[in-house]
Amino acid sequence: MLKKPENLCGSVNVGLALPAQRTQWQEVVYLAEACKERFLTQSDLPELVDNGFFMAGLADLSEGYEIERVQTFHHTLLFTLEGMGKLTTPEREYCLLPNTLTVLPVGKPFRFELKDADKSWKMAWVLLQPSEKWQPLAMNGQRVEQSRVCEQVWSVMNLLHSEVGGRSSYRKLFASELSRLLLGSATMAPSNSVLRVQSIFNDIESQLHLNWTVKGIAKQCYLSTEQLNRITKQLYQCSTQQKLIELRMEKAVDLLQNREWTVGMVALRLGYQDPFNFTHRFRQYHGCSPREYRKRLFG
Predict the structure, then answer these.
(1) Helix crossing, 290-298 with 275-286: angle to 10°?
(2) 5 DSSP assignment
(3) Which pLDDT score is estimated for 23?
(4) Quick one: which of 42, 119, 173, 254 has the fewest CB in 10 Å?
(5) Which is it for the CA torsion 242, 243, 248, 250, positive or negative?
(6) Which residue spans within 84-153 are E strands per DSSP?
């Protein structure tokens, strides 16, 4: 009989303790045609080597997925974002729920697979070199635990993938950030992403002349655009794009008080290369054109 589900990660039951019946293992790799997987390899991303990564991947799985290993030479980490997977170890069976980290150190067999063939499983996986650097992660053996960094790991790995064949400096930055997330996954404060968003908006306010975009801001915060918009709404009760417009339009009122600057000059200082675009945005926000505003101000 199954034992009562154990509370293995705070308030979430991530696994079922089963009798240790599994003694025979084999090498199995199976992906159904519907599965999608993007790889991060050392040949595409040499920066992985310097940070102790062997390989990584982003997986969106459905219809069928099975990986079984008898012996491995790298530590395996799984970050579940959505759906559900199933893990079998020599001692236990787990349901892999969203926002959980699975740690599979070298030396023991395991099997992980899609929990239900008619449902999906979205997860990121990382293979780590068995070095001293990763010993804090590997020292407690095979396990599944709650994690607050699953979305951030997915986002940073997406950014790394986007820089394949791109800028080495960005790849180095993203690989370093991924390393930091993994090593600090047990203690990282949930407010870090909020602090990064607050910090970037402070920078934006002092550099409104730059070509800021939502995608670019998200990249600098190591977040997806969806995560960025969610945090921005929590902080400022509006979307990222709306916050950008607000910062520029509120500053426009101050700059238009300098009568020596033309409307075109003010537009450029606020990041608008086209003064007509600036005028259109100003009228939408304030209900009048920049020239009408000046006329009301100075008569």
Answers:
(1) 60
(2) P
(3) 75
(4) 254
(5) positive
(6) 85-88, 93-96, 100-104, 110-114, 120-128, 143-146
